[in-house]
Write a structure and sequence with these properties.
517 residues; mainly alpha; Arc Repressor Mutant, subunit A; 21 helices; globular
Length: 517
């Protein structure tokens, strides 16, 4: 009876969590992420776009930096009070973000139309961009939570397709001949992103949202990891502001290169379960490209710098989509609390971005550097990028993979056995063992594959997860059970059968033959 009740509870939980597991939700999530990416791209290139280009470039860069500082302040609040933010997530999306965006656009429109002039322009614009920075965080955090509830087999493809769709949408909005049309276009993307996020949050079961609060609270990221993320942000801010200072044509050319990065991300998403390409591999591939593009900038004219910027932006587009995928898939696979993880990574990124934007502003506009000092500055930035990756890459990629290989030794080539003929008792024995060691939902799915004699490659294909993720789940199961091989796991399931048989014998009964098993 208890088992039946447990099954019913599981089916009810599964039904309540089905909002983000259907194909329709994946399509809506793709559209929402595309709109979010358009807005994020518009924000960083804003000094060259209609939202700020009517003012001096100094004002545009100042507003951009104000929005990043505001976002970081909000991220610090998320780190200190994650539950308070999570409990109010739906209200942050609607009416929260729209309540921030509406006055921000109204204030910007007053400045753009000339209704506000003179010394009042700067404080009004700063107030508008404080609101925009807070609104962007509310939207991006809500999408991080939603993607963390999506099945892993669809997440990578949904994010990659959203990134690919964002490029033509951004070019359409930013390249509109009439500034008012462009502003209306970005406002439409924002409203669509907001409404889609609110709709999916409303459709998500309260039980699943409540369960997320009990997920693992990831420890603080290491100094090496924070340095690597901040360095990527520094280079991104440096390239973005350099392009914005050169004007709208350079921005449009560089932004168009984002579709190349998104295309590579789509290819990886399709091949994900059959590939060993992970975030560490991505960083090893992208760091040389970014470093080379930075080093060539001092020796190029405006056209050449635009080309270097385009290469860097295309690479950043791919890296950003991969990082988003890694973040939300890890949240879903290992039941990690999304608010804190998102806030930690973004805080380091926007801190680096702010520093890079300031460096570019002074190097290319306020105090333009001649070729030799600019080349020295580019060399310093390139060295910092490579050094940060060397520190972080060795810690997070090679060491982690070696540790997983040791912890899952003997699990890659286990003996293949047939499942018992009587499937129900087999499942009952597995359920008993899984309850005893308090395995998570995903670990239970992996456990069942292992108990049937399947190997890590089978788990990877069966559950649509990467090879490293499958090995990590196996390692977690082994650690919880205090074992070091798959054969030990199978033996424990078999012993559960023996224990069940003995419990089912009538009190005082004697076995007919002491050798009977």
């Amino acid at each position: 009876m208890a088992e039946n009740q447990s099954d019913r509870n599981g089916r009810e939980a599964e039904g309540s969590a089905s909002a983000m597991r259907g194909s329709a939700a994946c399509v809506l999530a793709t559209l929402g992420f595309a709109c979010l990416t358009v807005w994020g791209t518009y924000i960083v290139f804003s000094p060259a776009l209609p939202l700020l280009s009517f003012e001096a470039v100094e004002v545009g860069v100042a507003c951009l930096i104000v929005s990043r500082v505001t976002a970081n302040a909000a991220l610090l609040f998320c780190l200190r009070r994650p539950d308070a933010v999570f409990d109010r997530l739906k209200r942050l999306v609607l009416p929260g973000s729209l309540a921030l965006l509406a006055p921000a656009f109204a204030l910007s429109a007053l400045c753009w139309s000339g209704a506000v002039g003179g010394d009042a322009v700067l404080p009004v614009l700063v107030a508008a961009w404080v609101l925009l920075g807070a609104a962007e965080l509310a939207l991006s955090l809500s999408w991080a939570v939603l993607f963390s509830m999506m099945p892993a087999k669809w997440t990578a493809l949904s994010i990659a397709c959203g990134g690919a769709l964002a490029t033509p949408l951004f070019l359409l909005v930013a390249g509109a001949g009439e500034p008012l049309v462009g502003l209306l276009g970005i406002a439409f993307c924002l409203v669509a992103c907001d409404l889609l996020a609110y709709f999916l949050l409303r459709k998500t079961g309260e039980e699943e949202l409540a369960a997320m609060k009990g997920f693992h609270r990831e420890p603080a990221i290491t100094l090496k990891a924070a340095l690597s993320v901040a360095t990527n942000g520094l280079v991104y801010g440096y390239v973005v502001v350099m392009l914005a200072l050169m004007g709208l044509p350079s921005v449009l050319v560089a932004a168009a290169a984002g579709v190349v990065g998104a295309g590579v991300a789509i290819l990886w998403a399709v091949k994900r379960t059959r590939s060993r390409w992970d975030v560490g591999t991505m960083q090893r591939a992208t760091v040389p490209i970014v470093a080379a593009s930075i080093l060539f900038i001092p020796f190029c004219d405006e056209v050449g710098r635009t080309a270097c910027g385009a290469v860097a932006i295309g690479t950043f587009a791919y890296a950003t989509l991969m990082e988003w995928t890694d973040l939300v898939v890890s949240n879903a696979e290992f039941q990690l609390y999304p608010v804190r993880r998102y806030a930690k990574g973004r805080f380091a990124q926007w801190t680096g971005f702010t520093a890079g934007a300031l460096v570019a502003y002074f190097a290319f506009h306020a105090f333009p550097l001649p070729p030799t000092p600019l080349a020295l500055l580019s060399c310093i930035i390139a060295v910092v990028v490579v050094a940060a990756f060397a520190l972080y890459g060795a810690d997070d990629s090679e060491t982690k993979e070696a540790l997983l290989a040791v912890m899952t030794a003997g699990a890659d080539s286990p003996p293949i056995i047939d499942p018992p003929k009587n499937a129900a008792p087999f499942r009952e024995r597995c359920d008993a063992v899984m309850r005893q060691y308090d395995l998570s939902q995903r670990e239970m799915e992996v456990f069942l594959c292992l108990a049937k004699g399947r190997n890590a490659e089978y788990v990877q294909q069966k559950l649509f997860i990467s090879g490293n993720t499958a090995k990590t789940h196996i390692a977690h199961i082994y650690r919880k059970m205090g074992i070091n091989s798959q054969q030990r796991l199978i033996d424990m399931v078999d012993r559960e059968a023996e224990a069940t048989r003995k419990c089912d014998e009538p009190y005082g009964s004697m076995p007919i033959d002491s050798n009977t098993k």
